[in-house]
Sequence to fold (225 residues):
Amino acid sequence: MVKEVFVLLAAVAAALGADPTPCCVHHQFTADLLEVGGKINPLLAVPEPITIQSRLYYDYDAKKQRVDRVVENDDGTTNNVTIYVDYTEQVARSIVGGKCVVTSLKQATMQEPCVPATSKFVGTRVLGPATNGVSINSFTADLTKVLNVTMKVSVTSDDCTPVSVSSYGVMEGAFQEITYFFTNLVYSLPHQVFHIPAICHGVHAPLVGRDLPLSPALKRYLNLQ
Fold:
């Protein structure tokens, strides 16, 4: 009996002392995103800032997501972009300047609403006041063999709500660093949020609209360059 008690106490101590493990959040949510970072232009070898405000609608079960974005151009002006992504159809429909641009996803896989399973725990910090702030767990993941990037993910320690996601590495031939900050997150979706507007009806991949007068920043985002 004494031996069994020691074994039980050892198991409890191990569980209490164990590092947090990668976790998952709800499969449907809506959130505001602030994307900030920069890249090195591979042709000019000069830094270029990245600043994008977005509203994300995410449904992992339906394999769909929608992003409403305000993209800042190189001259400081902005463009509104709405992107409907359907991973079942393998198509992205982007509404830019009153036109519908359609691209093929080329066998893309929707990212799970989870901290990558291969992530390593970095540490726990408190966001806000130390006495009544929000406890945050941070993880790092080496995805250089898959996506050529390294990621750091921070989530709330109680329910895995995403707080921020940072990535850095070589993307589209350029070294980039970008951080996504999640705010105003709710675990629900508006009615018919994935309804495709009439402007995109009858428009199919492969790419349609390459001759549209898009800004360089939008072309980079839509992979038209």
User: Anything to note?
Assistant: Residues 1-16, 207-225 have pLDDT under 50 and may be disordered. DSSP finds two helices and eleven strands in the chain.
